[in-house]
From TrEMBL:
Annotated signal peptide: 1-28
InterPro entries to which the protein is assigned, alphabetical: Sortase, Sortase_dom-sf, Sortase_F, TAT_signal
Name of the featured protein: Class F sortase
Top-level taxon of origin: Bacteria
Segments for region (Disordered): 28-52
Keywords assigned: Hydrolase, Signal
CDD domains xrefs: Sortase_F
PROSITE patterns: PROKAR_LIPOPROTEIN, TAT
The species this protein was found in: Streptomyces lutosisoli
Biased composition (Low complexity): 29-40
Keyword match Signal: yes
Amino acid sequence: MTSPSRRAFAAAATAALASSLVGCGGHAAGRAGTARSGSTPAPSRSSAKAAHALGRSVPVRLRIPAIGVDTPVIQLGLASDGSVQVPPITAHDRAGWYRHSPTPGQTGPSVILAHVTVGAYGDGVFRHLARLRKGDRIMTRLENGTTAEFAVNAVRTVAKADFPADAVYGNVDRPELRLITCGGPRTGDGYLDNVIVFAALSSASP
């Protein structure tokens, strides 16, 4: 299967994904991600040695031990209005991989997003995403049985109006991962900010 062109991916993502999590689960007040945290600089794209790129294989599970995440991963495409889909608001919240981005372990930025709150159901999968720190591990289990492990390079909390599209979706010469959710102060049914985790592939195992 041929992956979509970088231009198509960047255009769709830049136009839609920055604001796609505006609701982040609706009305319930999350217990995390409700205060603006200091942002760290975007990671240097040549600051760390990454593992060799993997072949294309869809992610099926995501684990982040430092914040207690262990969730199935569903596939997300584009909604009818051209915005990026988000995981459904359900009691059993799940993360979603944007299927027009590289799969985890392929060269380029693979994008996984999830809610910080899920309406009346309370906390979402990424409720503690902003607590991640440099060096924390992120494991993605792939459909082919491989586990791609990433190490966090940086965590940023940015205003939605200033979403750093180039840093998130821009070309990189190694396998990287972006985890995205909402954060910062609440406004109505949503949040003012996005929390973005930048990570690079560190290893892969059967």
